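hi! just following up on the protien thing from before. the input was this:
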Amino acid sequence: MLKGKSQAFLEMASEEAAVTMVNYYTPVTPHLRSQPVFIQYSNHRELKTDNLPNQRAQAALQAVNAVQSGSLALTTAPGNEGGVLPGQSPVLRIIVENLFYPVTLEVLYQIFSKFGTVLRIITFTKNNQFQALLQYADPLNAHYAKMALDGQNIYNACCTLRIDFSKLTSLNVKYNNDKSRDFTRLDLPSGDGQPSLDPTMAAAFGKITSIPAVPGALGPLTITTSAVTGRMAIPGVPGVPGNSVLLVSNLNPDAITPHGLFILFGVYGDVQRVKIMFNKKENALVQMADANQAQLAMNHLSGQRLYGKVLRATLSKHQLVQLPREGQEDQGLTKDFSNSPLHRFKKPGSKNFQNIYPPSATLHLSNIPPSVMVDDLKNLFTEAGCTVKAFKFFQKDRKMALIQLGSVEEAIQALIELHNHDLGENHHLRVSFSKSTI
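and the predicted 3d structure came back as:
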């Protein structure tokens, strides 16, 4: 403890544990005795402590662990008492009571995505109450969200959340508009006369719906957007839902390039611009095509290891990335990719929308010409510094293959370096993360 500075160092058992803790508390600031506590990585690799107080601390820790081991079963073994019941649904039913301000689908997405990947949301009015069904990728996320949010107010003193589990285990969304959204299918039509989702109009988020329209909805109150969003009562939920710019930090400045960030973030959306900060090269801004893609990239990439460092991504306060002015010194750190032929999602209805997965050690390779053999591809990845653990061509289609590498970090770096690699015969290798293992 550094008493005079109101600071403390905390050494976890492993780097993974430290990463998990920082990621958990990044979106939701913890409070100790109603004081917000800020957590970040230290430059120290380990702590030196004098032994006497340390032994007292050890004894206290053991006592606390003994008391808590009963309740901690929740996180370690789903299916225990108090934990996630077997067969529990990943779908929550949400009722918003005391609806003083309009609550939009975007606002729900922002709040609930703090607890895990949100796949689908449907909103509706029933018995004069605003309600929503929200599906997580994992029932455990639904369980934690219900525990944390049931009974909380979205805005100060109003818009109270009442949450329970739905009998449905999956939601079927036909249209992406301000009433329903499938975040795994950006290609769905908007339906019922809604303006179609034009990517330039901050598709899926922002302009089409919600917050900008709040003043009109409140009639004589005409509260400005910033005033309404500023009243968010749930800690860690930022104000503006429509931002498509990410602040990416803790990068390795010796290894990262604007093109590398373009390729990596391009797995989750069409990157428009990248700016590595001139004075602080471990930080960068990445502008996606829309806020939905920014959220997707943030959910999947924050906390992943890249070139030996744990990458962190949050929504930036900037609304767009500025290009340098004529004659301004930039060292090639700002790049515009808006017309890049490497965008994965520019075709409406593209299959790529349905194949968005979190980073994994297994990569999906495609666009392989017939002359390229197993050993050619294994050598390509070995030369890029990877350990190849397994490889197989698809039986039905030899243009595609799976390759399993030594770690997720290796796979991320291989994707950056080898996506669009020229294999000859006018074939450029396509690389994505796979949900399968070999």
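The chain has a mean pLDDT of 79.
The chain is about 25% helix and 20% strand.
cheers
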